[in-house]
Amino acid sequence: MTTNPYQAYANSRALWERASRVMPGGVNASARYNAALGHALYFERGEGAYLYDRDGRRYIDLLTSHGASLLGHGHPAVVKAAEAALTRGILAAYETELQVRTAEKTLALFPGAEMMRYTCSGTETTWHALRIARAFTGKIGVVKFEGHYHGVNDTVGFSHWPKVAEAGAAESPVPVADSAGIPPYAADYLTVLPFNDAAALERTLREKADTLAALIMEPVNYDSCGICAQPEFLRLVRELTRELGIVLIFDEILSGFRVGPGGAMASTGIYPDMTCLGKAYGGGLPLSAILGTREIMMMCTPVGPALQSGTYNAPPLLVAGAEAFLDTIAAPDFYPHLNELAERLYGGMREVFARRGIRAWVQGVGARFGLLFGLEREPLNYRDIAAQDWEMARRFHLACLKRGVYIMFKSPHHGFSSAHTLADIDLTLDVMDDAAAEIAQKR
Ligand SMILES: Cc1ncc(COP(=O)(O)O)c(C=O)c1O
After folding, report:
1. Reported pTM
2. Dihedral, 396, 399, 401, 405 alpha carbons, nearest 10
3. Are residues 343 and 421 both part of a single domain?
4. With 80 as the cut, is the pLDDT of residue 6 above it?
5. What is the band of 265 on the pLDDT scale with cuts at 50, 70, 90?
6. Contact 77/328 with Cβ under 8 angstroms?
7. Average pLDDT value over all residues in the chain
8. Residue 8 Cα to chain centre, angstroms
């Protein structure tokens, strides 16, 4: 085991320097830059629960493609379905029976949804969903919660993880753009609220109801380390939006399929008007979807006035991944296996941190979790998680990486796949124990 990361990652580092000449930062998504290492890692392949990098190292993968690889890398059912789709001519922009059959299977899992459309990325999906909601209500305003993430589109590209000093009072945050280049006027149409704050919610929705088209939210806010909507808060969100004619959109791009076969709709019985799916849904292939009630989805062209189209909407190759994914998670032992892994991992992590005297909160929800250093109680909103100890987090993540567990510093969430075994979890816990001992020593 080397303690010099640059030496250990020599091939990755060389490739990163080469990549940086042709791709900004040497990456195609800023989240792939490894802030703990100071460069990106480059991989040869993935297999099940494992990643293999350019320096010949094997990792247990706890990033799982930011949640897209819930079945692990290269699940045989997904590979087989994709291969079959390839032999039919890589149809890019055509309808086949596959899209219909997979839509039927998808809608069967989301009881409040009646119709759907496929897109590729989550960013497109939330953007389309908001346009459809605006067309349906004839209003433009959107409400989102501080700490929630809905992709990089300008409509909701605000206040994911703002600097607290710039974000206003906790009970009435101001929108802070996540990026340069977002037109300032976009903020005029957006209201940002604190999560799980019933008083702020009711006051604002009643005050602005005439201008609000939609409220979009992550029912499990994995993008702030797995904060859960409190049941009474979620009920209030549903009651108020219904009463005030505001379309309720559950962004389940990350939370869908994570704790059970449906989304929050299936697990809480609270039905939104629209749902966005993505990530795990394509079995690792880039497929997303917008689901909604018939009345709302019929706003889409060609039957309604909201233009909804795209050359790469629903290529059979990607939809085949989703069908294989849905068939795989329908196996009776799929979720019991995930639950067993979750229990072992989260319980084990809590023991590790207690043993090593490290103040850390493990926020495990289904197959994904947040890890918060310096916290001792369950976080309820973004301001709670913003107070975490980043330096401790950086050192822990780097110490795990060096020992062969791929866990990404600054990712709000981590997780495992169905390809992970109890033995992988035990190995992960051994690594975490060593890593925790290292960072405890250097305090
Ligand atoms: C809840 C949520 N919505 C939307 C997105 C955007 O999805 P994509 O990265 O596919 O554009 C993400 C991605 O992290 C997400 O977690």
Report:
1. 0.97
2. -80
3. yes
4. no
5. confident
6. yes
7. 96
8. 30
DSSP run (H or E) holding 5: helix 5-8
Binding site membership of 126 for ligand 1 (Cβ less than 6 Å): yes
User: Residues 85, 89, 95, 100: what is their CA dihedral angle, to the nearest 10 degrees?
Assistant: -20
Residue 278 CB–ligand 1 contact under 6 Å: yes
C-alpha–C-alpha distance, residues 429 and 407, integer Å: 13
DSSP 132: H
124 CB less than 6 Å from ligand 1? no
Report the domain count for the chain: 2
CA-CA-CA-CA torsion sign (110, 134, 187, 289): positive
pLDDT for 443 equals 65
- Is residue 342 located within the same domain as residue 214? no
For ligand 1, atom 7, which residue shows the shortest CA distance?
122
pLDDT for 397-427, tens place per residue? Answer: 999 999 999 999 999 999 999 999 999 999 9
Give residue-wise pLDDT tens across range 322-334. Answer: 999 999 999 999 9
Q: How far apart are CA 48 and CA 71, in angstroms?
A: 8
CATH number at residue 120: 3.40.640.10
